[in-house]
């Protein structure tokens, strides 16, 4: 049964009218009905939090969204905690915990409060047109937060929340993690070490118009390259006394990166470059200043870029190649390479594949199409990657839509209900499974 395009109420009606609904337990059928009944409430809650600017660097706005959400979790029997992150230059995180049977699986649900849209952005407000709504961060990730709440409310209505071990982690700086990173992510990592399963509630991925499952995401790391050379009159370029200059050394390195580093699931980009006498990165590393003349050999060149990989082993292998290329200097030049690991990869594992298989059994019970694994090269980094070394994970559990990080970002509202139904049943089943 293909029901992806149906509105929320029609989804529930189609599901429960289908013979396949007999595969759902009585509590699971109650959960489906509860999601449907709460749809307009969920859309109203989404509107309220979307209208509050919570750009990562708007600390008051991030905290305001957290304050709006805390009562909702408390009503569900969760203990809420605001974790101040001023030491890392960020607002903080909202964690909600509900502990039950110590012998059953522990579940971590991950989303984020912040958006890329700071108060200076002209993109504001909330506009609904039927089954679509537009607003800053409405998909990434305020819609994901609403999916979490909708699923938990459905579980409460069905009685499947009782005895469950759940931590909800809503970070306040997913779009621009605080520094030092160890401080900014220590609470999330601790929760990942506690958990048996992690679910990430950023947006739903699709393949050929069908919902897909995200069992892997790539890393996101930064690198800085600086090349140096003695300066002098351009007439001496390439000579033994003057060497090749900083720009040619920079070009040599970047061209060898292009020719020698490509491999499956890895990408590397040069986002900024400058060269001259001198050239210098700005303190925020988002711009550079330089000057020079055509008849002067450039003394310094700088470049900044990123690296994205699928596994820690791939990351280590490519960085080792980069360092070897950087060290093979042209005459009269030197080079420095600094690598900053930020978001680790979420590698595809058997445990992640098993989670998707469990979700697909739920899809079959709901009469929904099977979700195929989404290509990891098409998903960016996310907070679930920080807990990937410790726990089985499934990402892309948030709603569907498009235009993330740009004016006009939108959400397909019925997907809130579809994802909440899937989540309520999946978490309810996981919460009854014994710990390994």
UniProtKB/TrEMBL annotation:
- Gene3D superfamilies linked to this entry: 3.30.70.360, Zn peptidases
Please give the cofactor(s) recorded in the UniProt entry for this protein.
Answer: Zn(2+)
Q: Which residues form the Peptidase M20 dimerisation domain?
A: 215-331
What SUPFAM superfamilies does the entry give? Bacterial exopeptidase dimerisation domain (SSF55031), Zn-dependent exopeptidases (SSF53187)
Q: Which UniProt keywords apply?
A: Hydrolase, Metal-binding, Signal, Zinc
* Pfam families cross-referenced by the UniProt entry: M20_dimer (PF07687), Peptidase_M20 (PF01546)
Residues of the signal peptide: 1-22
PANTHER family assigned to the protein according to its UniProt record, in alphabetical order: ACETYLORNITHINE DEACETYLASE, ARGE_DAPE-RELATED DEACYLASE
Name of this protein: M20/M25/M40 family metallo-hydrolase
């Amino acid at each position: 049964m293909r029901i992806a395009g149906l509105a929320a109420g029609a989804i529930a009606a189609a599901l429960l009218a289908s013979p396949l609904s007999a595969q759902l337990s009585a509590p699971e059928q109650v959960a489906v009905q509860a999601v449907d009944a709460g749809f307009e409430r969920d859309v109203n809650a989404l509107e309220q939090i979307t209208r509050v600017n919570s750009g990562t660097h708007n600390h008051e706005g991030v905290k305001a969204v957290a304050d709006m959400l805390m009562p909702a979790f408390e009503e569900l029997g969760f203990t809420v905690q605001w974790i101040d992150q001023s030491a890392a230059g960020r607002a903080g995180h909202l964690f909600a915990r509900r502990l039950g049977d110590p012998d059953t699986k522990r579940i971590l649900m991950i989303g984020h409060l912040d958006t890329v849209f700071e108060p200076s952005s002209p993109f504001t407000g909330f506009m609904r047109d039927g089954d679509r709504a537009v607003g800053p961060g409405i998909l990434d990730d305020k819609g994901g937060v609403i999916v979490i709440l909708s699923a938990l409310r459905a579980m409460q209505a069905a009685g499947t929340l009782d005895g469950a071990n759940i931590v909800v982690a809503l970070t306040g700086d997913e779009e621009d993690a605080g520094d030092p990173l160890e401080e900014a992510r220590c609470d999330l990592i601790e929760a990942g070490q506690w958990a048996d399963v992690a679910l990430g509630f950023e947006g739903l991925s699709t393949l050929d118009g069908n919902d897909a499952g995200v069992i892997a995401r790539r890393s996101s790391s930064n690198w800085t390259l600086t090349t140096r050379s003695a300066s002098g009159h351009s007439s001496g370029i390439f000579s033994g006394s003057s060497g090749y200059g900083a720009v040619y050394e920079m070009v040599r390195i970047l061209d060898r990166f292009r020719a020698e580093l490509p491999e499956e699931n890895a990408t590397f980009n040069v986002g900024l470059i400058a060269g001259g006498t001198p050239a210098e990165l700005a303190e925020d590393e988002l711009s550079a200043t330089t000057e020079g003349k055509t008849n002067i050999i450039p003394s310094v060149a700088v470049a900044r870029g990123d690296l994205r990989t699928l596994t820690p082993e791939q990351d280590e292998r490519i960085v080792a190649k980069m360092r070897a290329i950087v060290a093979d200097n042209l005459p009269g030049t030197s080079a420095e390479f600094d690598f900053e690991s930020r978001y680790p990869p979420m590698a595809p594992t058997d445990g992640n594949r098993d989670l998707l298989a469990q979700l697909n059994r739920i899809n079959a019970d709901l009469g929904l199409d099977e979700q195929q694994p989404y290509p990891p090269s098409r998903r960016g980094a996310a907070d679930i990657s920080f807990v990937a070394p410790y726990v089985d994970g499934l990402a892309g559990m948030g709603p569907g839509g498009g235009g993330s990080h740009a004016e006009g970002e939108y959400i397909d509202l019925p997907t809130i209900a579809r994802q909440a139904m899937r989540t309520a049943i999946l978490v309810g089943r996981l919460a009854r499974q014994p710990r390994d």
